[in-house]
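Narrative of accomplishments. A recurring question from our advisory board has been how the design workflow behaves on a single, concrete structure rather than in aggregate. To address it, we present the structure tokens for one chain from the evaluation set, followed by the sequence designed for it. No filtering or post-editing was applied between the two.
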């Protein structure tokens, strides 16, 4: 594994009043999209950002593109970590390893083919700083095609007039309203919920949905009714495959994740008291505030 780390020492970016936000960007053969993803990070109105980029042994020019952006990223962001895997680990294990380099107070990840609006992090962070009862927040997003043409503002065009917020675990069992690119999570919760190594062992094939389910067990989740990210609709991607067998396989995996969550097989971790060590917490899989009251109304500032 090739690892490059840069930490900016400018005190303007190290203020205790300015939380560090970590963003993981995983990439595999995404060279044509990385420029837009990196530029969306460079354009953020909030500056105290940490980027952890991991290339999972791409066979295209992804690493070369990433290195071409490295000088700009170093000048603009507080901390930059660049990782190149020697061999392909697969998305879940690659991201699990990358997560260990995230040192921020808040965490998020951005797929290499998606990008953020300039005020995404600022809006997310402002919500969480004003609403301490929420452990995470997400927003609406625009679906775009390969050429960045907007297909739709997703939730505004859907049958859901209002996305639930608060204790939403019960509703998360039926559908996943959270686009990962729009999400920001308090890091203490991130470490407990987004256990991609465990998801890989269970052969889930995706990390966002099981992670969101874990998250919704432990905390209230907020929603900002504003487009803060662009999600790329790629016809050859796993989630939008034209292959009927792939679509059926994904449906089966989602059904298994939902069933595991109902049975408590999928569950978040708890801090063991030994540094960064975590264990399964059976108590987190039973009653929790708002249990059985899906979408419980919550006051938001």
């Amino acid at each position: 594994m090739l690892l490059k780390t840069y930490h900016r020492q400018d005190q303007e970016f190290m203020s205790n009043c300015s939380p560090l936000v970590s963003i993981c960007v995983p990439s595999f053969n995404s060279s044509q999209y990385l420029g837009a993803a990196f530029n969306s990070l460079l354009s953020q109105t909030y500056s105290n950002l940490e980027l952890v980029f991991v290339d999972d042994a791409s066979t295209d020019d992804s690493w070369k593109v990433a290195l071409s952006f490295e000088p700009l990223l170093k000048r603009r962001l507080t901390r930059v970590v660049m990782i190149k895997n020697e061999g392909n680990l697969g998305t879940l294990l690659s991201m699990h390893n990358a997560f260990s380099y995230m040192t921020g107070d808040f965490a998020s990840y951005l797929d290499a083919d998606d990008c953020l609006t300039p005020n995404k992090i600022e809006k997310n962070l402002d919500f969480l700083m004003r609403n301490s009862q929420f452990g995470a927040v997400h927003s609406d997003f625009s679906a775009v095609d390969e050429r960045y043409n907007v297909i739709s503002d997703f939730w505004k065009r859907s049958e859901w007039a209002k996305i639930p917020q608060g204790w939403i675990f019960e509703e998360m069992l039926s559908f996943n309203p959270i686009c990962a690119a729009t999400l920001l999570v308090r890091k203490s919760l991130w470490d407990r919920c987004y256990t991609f190594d465990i998801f890989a062992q269970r052969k889930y094939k995706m990390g966002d949905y099981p992670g969101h389910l874990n998250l919704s067990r432990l905390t209230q989740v907020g929603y900002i009714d504003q487009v803060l990210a662009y999600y790329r609709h790629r016809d050859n991607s796993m989630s939008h495959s034209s292959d009927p067998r792939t679509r059926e396989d994904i449906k089966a995996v989602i059904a298994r994740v939902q069933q595991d969550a109902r049975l408590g097989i999928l569950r978040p971790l708890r801090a063991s008291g030994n540094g960064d060590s975590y264990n399964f917490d059976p108590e987190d899989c039973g009653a929790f505030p708002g249990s059985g009251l899906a979408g419980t109304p919550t006051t938001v500032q």
